[in-house]
Amino acid sequence: MLRTLSRDALEAEVVRLRGVLEAAGIDAASDAAQPGPRAVEASDAPQDLAAALEASRAALARSEARQRAIFDSAVDVAMIVTDPAGIITDWNPGAEHVMGWTAAEMRGRSAERLFTPEDRAEDRPAREMRQALREGRASDERWHMREGGRRFWASGELMPLRGEAGAHAGFVKIMRDRTSEHLAGIALKETEARYRLAARATNDAIWDWDLTTNGVLWNEALTRAYGHALDRVEPTGDWWIAQIHPDDRARIDHSIHAVIDGAEAAWADEYRFRRADGSYAEVLDRGHVIRDAGGRAVRMIGAMLDMTGLRTAETALRASEERFRTILDTIEAAFAIVEVKFDADDRPVDYRFLEANPAFEREAGVNLRGKWVTEFAPDLERFWFETYGRVAKTREPTNFENYAEAFKRWFDVRAVPVGEPDDRQIAIIFNDVTARRSAEERLRASEAVARENVERVQLALAAGAIIGTWHWDIPGDRFTVDEGFAGAFGLDPALGRDGIPLAQIVATVHPDDQAGLAAAIDEVIARGGAYAHQYRVRRADGHYYWIEANGRVDRGPDGAPLSFPGVLLDVEERRSVEQERDRALAQLRALNGTLEQRVTERTADLMQAEEQLRQSQKMEAVGQLTGGLAHDFNNLLAGISGSLELMNARIGQGRLQDVEKYMVAAQGATRRAAALTHRLLAFSRRQTLDPKATDVNALVGGMIELIQRTVGPSVRIDTVFLPDLWPALVDPSQLENALLNLCINARDAMPDGGRITIETGNRRIDGQAARRQDMPEGEYLSLAVSDTGTGMPPEVIAKAFDPFFTTKPLGQGTGLGLSMIYGFAKQSGGQVRIHSEEGEGTTVSIYLPRHRGRAEADETPAENRLHPVAAAGETVLVVDDEPTVRMLVADVLGDLGYAAVEATDGGAGLNILQSDARIDLLITDVGLPGGLNGRQMADAARVTRPDLKVLFITGFAENALLSNGQLEPGMAVLTKPFAVDMLAARIRDLIGA
What we know:
Helices cover 46% and strands 25% of the residues. The protein contains 32 helices and 32 strands. The longest helix is centred in the middle third of the chain and has 82 residues.
């Protein structure tokens, strides 16, 4: 097929395949001996291109195993594979090594977790995916997140994955930890900046000679020292050589090129250099050669010193050295020069102090000159040896701050190499920063406490416990308040920010409390410190309320009062409670004399009665359940069997007009028996659900009238619907039943009437909340029913979902209601939770998983007649081990015009499905004999018949029926017993879909 393609098409396919190999990190030339891209491009024959393409495809096929090996063995490179939505599906060991999370922790999580909060806020992950889809890849270098909230600098590339047909199958992101290089780059830029500043500030004429182009750059000192204006200087090596005195020129040219052409790096010589005015200066010139990886000299940097200035500088240098020595001897910073010792494997194992200033000796407490550090600190951490050894070997300075356990102190250290590289010597300057670190820790702890206090104040403000805050500038007599304070007392908020006269505030205080308030304020201003006082104030509604003012008076250094900040607390309710408590205590004291004896007398009777009641309740619950079921089933069976016998007798008598009423009676008894069976299955959490994408707001709204009639006029129904409520995949009838039961329970908890609130909402349950609520992490729809009733104590809540547990009087409940609701919610993939306090009411919340799709519209009831609707040749396979069911289904199919094929077990049904016979629909029971159930048979058949429609008919919810809480497309379920018209409607819907 490839040989029939045009040249352009073949070239495009070659480029595409090589791009795939390169993206996977595979060198196509190493996997198959193929001509390179230039060789392919140079070929003029399409047959050669086809051969190259065939070979590339073969190389790609051979590399699949190698790709997985690369993916799993790349421990220093993070490779992350996601689906199109950015959910992680694969996580190689390199990703675990770089970021700390294991593959098990990250699979199923969004790749957004790798981005910083700032990038997530800017929607960076989605932008990268869009760029990768648009341009083929998206590269970035930025900070990312690793386990524990730590950041690291990474270079990454995001590429889209394509399926066999070119469909977007996801993304692969390749990341490398570049933190060290990034920080080193920053340090390098800082070093270069310091170099430029030094070059600008020095009096030496610094030159930078590019040996590959013969270009020379000078600093401004060339003008200051020698008078040559930089804008008039020819920036070449020839100009430089031309300024050397003719008698020195050949010597200098020879000496400098001897270094450049040799293996040495340093050059220094003296010569006469012409100034701009024509005179010559005696200069000492020094240069350093920079070579490439092959040893070739590519650059030389040096500095030219005027010897006249140098002589003056030598004198100054001696004085400077004396000053430097004086500084080192007097400064608080510790300074030392050490020689690092290495073992046979070139690992640093010790260091000796060659020089140390007095401050260093004070820090160590001993004269360290000539001593090895292990002599007085044998337990010193390896960190110090490794760090100093690295500076000595690499000649790269370092700054760090670290804790020395041997000294129990923190040190801020600067280490720089000194002397010759082979000497392995470094200079150390450090300060004891233990006090500063301790202060920082105390500051962080103080800030944490402050944040907690602010959060507590904000929570108190939100809850209404704090009315508002004030600040009184005492010297300026400026009293400012926040908006909460101003709103509570009907004040202008703008005036509250600018300042309100204190007299205007005091005017709102109850006349009987003003004198006490003034005395309390005078007292705290006189002494300073904390202040707390309760009094009554007139609020914006004109009524007086009890408040408590809490604050403190802060003083200046001279003891004068400066400021008086504080908060107002609403204590009206607390005062009322205290008054009521005092009255109750008085009554309690009056009863206390006789209460103890009465309690003693009744305790024994109550304990005995409680044990008898508990046993009676258990037996009553079991007896009520079993007796009621036996009674109901016997009645229903009597109605069904009697109706069938009379129908048989009337048909034998020819009295067909009487058959219909017996038929109606038998069908009614059958429906009631089915309903009773469903209640039993709900109790056992094994009911067959028919989940649909449901608009729960609409479902609840349609039940309000029924709920109101059920709970009665003494209970008010309020609803709080979230407008953008997510759909839920749930059995609507079961959800309606659960909601009605919850409302009935709420009514029973309010014997004197009250309010029921039905509320819907969207909830995102994170990992911590999921563990606490015993449910999977994810997005849920919540349906909550709250009442203002008596509430429940913790011990009742703990047993509320237990079968047969009830708090209702004997004979008024079996304890199955909440148990059935719990079973329905868990079977739907959700959860039920109770929040209640005694005397404060109860809230029962049903959590159902969010459905990613639209809610289904209400179905129109099917017409209760059977008309032939089948197209010519349409055939239905019926698999059921019950002959009467097969007969019934086959007769319905015949009335609808379909051909029916029957099988008694899963094996026989699968043989038919794997044949060439035409099968438009499979109708099967789930529980089948022979080791192959209905769901397994349907799944096996769909391997060869992927579009096979399946209708499950079952009287029990086998675990094999549902997958992930729902049926696959093209599948439906019908619960036994079922109406014939419902069976016909499901058949028409599935085949016609």
